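User: Predict the full complex structure for these chains.
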Amino acid sequence: MPCPAPRLIALASPDDPRIDAYRVIKERDLVGRGGRFIVEGRTVLDVALSPRNRFRLESLLIAESRAAALAPLLAQAPADLPIHTASQEILDGITGFHIHRGLLGVGLRGEEPSAAELVASLPERALVVMALGITNHDNVGGIMRNAAAFGADAVLLDFASCDPLYRKAIRVSVGGSLVVPFAREGNAATLLDLLVAEGFELLAFSPAGETKLKDVVAAPRTALMVGAEGPGLSAAVMVRARTVSIPMAGGFDSLNVATAAGIALYHLADL
Amino acid sequence: MPCPAPRLIALASPDDPRIDAYRVIKERDLVGRGGRFIVEGRTVLDVALSPRNRFRLESLLIAESRAAALAPLLAQAPADLPIHTASQEILDGITGFHIHRGLLGVGLRGEEPSAAELVASLPERALVVMALGITNHDNVGGIMRNAAAFGADAVLLDFASCDPLYRKAIRVSVGGSLVVPFAREGNAATLLDLLVAEGFELLAFSPAGETKLKDVVAAPRTALMVGAEGPGLSAAVMVRARTVSIPMAGGFDSLNVATAAGIALYHLADL
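Assistant: Here is the predicted structure of the two-chain assembly.
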């Protein structure tokens, strides 16, 4: 099937007001909020332009030099999505750093469900990931990627964890942050209360866990909890949950937290 | 047990010849060879100073300000290991970038076994990871970390893959690169020949794999093979192996390659 030509809007200046949202991306990174988020790169845009993306895109911004190669992908964009093109020189002027992937977009966060609303919306059988104190963007991105890969129904993050819609987390998630419903608020105690009230079995992952992962049969509603590398989950969390370990070879410390979540999801999702 | 005071050598100049190996680390990064490698950060040093480290350290270089906090760790160092200390200003002058972890070391590669020597040295029951075309340092580091966590006996990498002793790969491996025997040479065909001749069952991991991972029982000698994200393993590799998939939820592309290796190792190592 021949691709329709994408509707491109060529820019002549980095100060064009139609791309105000792309200015000072580093500031946006630091804030990570503000109703918008940045997506970048072809793999993420692939997800962002698919029906699996839960968010609305506001616009795209691409390097002129990539327009031809990206035409098939851009043909999937909604008819009313503005797609701006500019020379690499203008792109550099707009964003303050070299966009080596030549492909950016702005998404709108829209109405974000509270953790309570998200948990209330889950089906009778549900697998939830709970991330506590995960301040590293790569790890949050990796958790979102794995949650998407294994079809987790939701990810809950405490407020100490970083935002899955932070630019780098989205990139590392290869779009998983756009796919899996999540809420980020409160602390371990409030999130645990919520899940217990909704009938979830809580699994706390730790090298010191009492049950080996392979011996765990997932309950109809299961929440798997992971904490930051190093400190791990707090004692207050561990006592409220069934503690589970992923056995490792003697003497080596521990798995990366996103990898541990991936292994747990692999076992529990049973696809 | 009280810790003996570490033997510190205070430096007064970034040009001190005793720390020549630390100069121009960025060049070393690019080359990645030369008989030496750089380790950095407390977690990696912990492994580097443990009996699990297969390599000899040549020296350490730490920020004066961290000497007290690191004393218990440094007490594990061999008596003849020079431990240099310097002000942050001098450190910055030595290495050309700010060492925010305040802790560097130089290791010696020593005699490196060929792939054939490494495979010949393996026990009767052995689990090997084979990484083909993995050019990303984070992914090679992640594979080395997971190989260490699950007690893989060796990692074979083709020459297209990056060096596990590259600075960033060591850091991401949290020392796994120092622990698991590896060889990096040749291409897929030569490495496959070697493993087949030594009686290994070859498992080729791919989303298109015919057997689900959970249905695989590890043979006494098993080699699990992973390729670069995106292209994956070549057809030439796939036809020579049993192809294995890690089932994923509909529509989501794929796992990170190091995570996939971690899940495969979790299942096959059966700890």
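Chain B is about 30% helix and 20% strand.
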